[in-house]
Design goal:
Blueprint: H1 3-8, E1 25-34, H2 47-63, E2 72-76, H3 82-90, H4 96-101, E3 106-110, E4 115-119, E5 125-132, H5 136-153, E6 158-159, E7 163-164, E8 176-183, H6 185-189, H7 193-202, E9 205-208, E10 221-226, H8 234-262, H9 264-280, H10 286-301, H11 310-319, H12 322-329, H13 335-349
Antiparallel strand pairs: 1-5, 1-8, 2-3, 3-4, 4-5, 6-7, 8-10, 9-10
Helix pairs in contact: 3-12, 9-10, 10-11, 11-13
């Protein structure tokens, strides 16, 4: 796929698949942190060393494509414009760190964008597999297969006692972060989320916003991932996370049922007001748009809104971000211009049918 292809499609092809519990779990991700033996880690490496790692890694992996995920395209950070990197971050294909701070960074992507191999991020390699809905087991299986394939071509920095060696001590061991992106509007509306999140942290898991560490939980979207990588196997990590996710799904379903039984008119009013504002606004800020899209998505999931595709709203969550708005405009936009274009784009998309 060309750079233009990665830039212009808001929804990655993998997002169009239907996964288990996809009304609540939007996506599942497995990410592996790896470093190469006999090379300085990125936090200590010189520009020349980072360049050598990038060239060596790309050449090695392009030499023998992995059939299970298809051919890979390589994008080099120094060849991308600032806004192009921003779009890749908004699509969750690269991290903000790779976009902003990486020396000779690159990313290798497969055609449906379910596999992303970041080069010279915090570690030499960040292997990321993404799937729609609750598919942690599938994600782990594919990620381990990709990891084995990469290790056939490259030698990892590995210690028999400590496991995979990483730049950050919190990633030492398996080097794995398993995470899910969850839409929890009913728990937020009933204020149960304020009690649940601290309890999740006590279980060795961490809750972040839509773009990971340091980001805000906009649109009632919460990213839940493991915090412990040392002393547990990859399967143990996935099993622990899956157990918590299963409980959260049930709590969210129960909260939705309570809202429908006890406050249906009030809930419908909130959802329809949000739909009306999104359908007719001429200017709208990002935070309000995301909040109201969350309401509309809940309305679709509860059967209170018909004729609008849930995929359209997944698309709008990305399309209305700064990077995409500027990508389509072909120019840097002021805040006022972005708010105007965001409103126009939402009005247009909400007219599309299933």
């Amino acid at each position: 796929m060309s750079l233009e292809g990665f830039m212009n499609e808001a929804i990655s092809p993998w997002m169009k698949d239907s996964g288990e519990d996809s009304d609540i779990v939007l996506s599942s991700r497995i990410r592996l942190a790896r470093n190469l033996k006999n090379y300085q880690f990125p936090i200590l490496s010189t520009l020349n060393q980072s360049k050598e790692v990038a060239e060596y890694t790309v050449a090695a992996l392009e030499e023998g494509p992995f059939e299970q995920v298809g051919p890979l395209d390589t994008l080099y950070m120094e060849e991308l414009k600032s806004n192009e990197k921003r779009v890749l971050v908004e699509k969750h294909l690269i991290s903000p760190h790779l976009a902003e701070q990486s020396k000779h960074g690159a990313v290798m992507l497969n055609q449906d964008e379910s596999l992303s191999i970041m080069i010279n991020e915090e570690d030499h390699l960040r292997i990321q597999c993404l799937f729609a809905g609750s598919q942690l087991e599938k994600g782990l299986e594919i990620a381990q297969s990709v990891d084995d394939w990469v290790e056939e071509h490259l030698t990892y920095a590995y210690d028999e006692k400590r496991g995979y060696l990483t730049s950050c001590p919190t990633n030492v061991g398996t080097g794995m972060r398993a995470s899910v992106m969850m839409h929890l509007p009913a728990l937020a509306m009933t204020q149960q989320i304020n009690r649940i999140l601290p309890a999740i942290n006590q279980l060795g898991l961490v809750v972040r916003g839509i773009y990971g560490e340091g980001s805000e939980a906009l649109g009632n979207l919460f990213q839940i991932s493991n915090q412990i990588t040392l002393g547990k196997s990859e399967q143990d990590i996935v099993d622990d996370l899956h157990g918590v996710v299963t409980q959260l799904i049930q709590r969210e379903r129960n909260a939705r049922q309570v809202l429908m039984q006890n406050s249906r008119l009030k809930l419908e009013d909130r959802i329809q007001r949000s739909l009306g504002i999104l359908s007719h606004s001429r200017i709208i800020e990002s935070k309000e748009a995301t909040r109201r899209l969350s309401d509309v998505r809940l309305g679709i999931d509860l059967g209170l809104i018909e004729g609008i595709s849930g995929n359209i709203l997944n698309e709008l969550m990305i399309l209305t971000q700064v990077g995409f708005l500027q990508q389509f405009a072909g120019d840097v936009l002021t805040a006022e211009q972005r708010d105007e274009r965001r409103a126009a784009l939402i009005r247009e998309r909400l007219q599309l049918k299933e």
